[in-house]
Amino acid sequence: MNKLELQKVANEVRKGIVTSVHAAKAGHPGGSLSAADIFTYLYFEEMNVDPKDPEKADRDRFVLSKGHTAPGLYSALALKGYFPVEDLETLRHLGSYLQGHPDMKHIPGVDMSSGSLGQGISAAVGMAIAGKMDNADYRVYTLLGDGEIQEGQVWEASMMAGFRKLDNLVVIVDNNNLQIDGAIDEVCSPYPIDKKFEAFNFHVINIDGNDFDQIDAAFKEARATKGMPTAIIAHTVKGKGVSFMENQIGWHGTAPNDEQYAVAMEDLKKVGEALCQK
């Protein structure tokens, strides 16, 4: 896909996020929206996956370590064709397979159940080690939150990844600077994030995580990097794309009411119309 096509898909991913969280009357829109461009690039450009064969052996793997942003992952999976887009409106409903956090046993395209913060990257490292042991050519991607990396397990996993020279692993940190209790540098600062990953023998790339040119260049650079894992520090805007949610901590885990939903969808409709005129 070219940049404009990716931007259009990302806008649809954002519509799916807002729609599903509104329908659930619960969920995490802020961090889902900030990572929407990353989800879009992974599933529509970067990863070798096939919605018609979600468990094919040579597929690339993705682990959503910050599992609470499942609305973003689900929206991308639905648009990719893993399940009907209409099912997004069943998010968190009793009996729905679209739970509040990813469930690998019931959701097509989900490679690892996640939600306990800090644990997803360990699973991804294990998958990458398995790939090396099997001489498989699949790649493993994992998305972490910047509040999540305050968890010690993240750095244990990173130490192993660097030590094992896992060049088939890409760790992405959605660095929107806000977590549930406030700004990350006021809660328990993980900065400088890039230097920490460098200390664990990662190749580190800093980007604007809402800019497809920079996202594209970063993932190409990661593919070209041999002998060490890559960490992409994606500087993003929490709530990206919805005017009243952007950079507002209150939208970390709050669902929009009917009036707010209408405003949000109008915001995204205008973005879509502008993209169609390009």
Automatic annotation (TrEMBL):
Source domain of life: Bacteria
Pfam family for this entry, one: Transketolase_N
Cofactor(s) the protein requires to work: thiamine diphosphate
Keyword Aminoacyl-tRNA synthetase: no
Limits of the Transketolase N-terminal domain: 7-262
Gene3D superfamilies per UniProt: 3.40.50.970
Keywords noted in UniProt: Thiamine pyrophosphate
Family: Belongs to the transketolase family.
Protein name: Transketolase
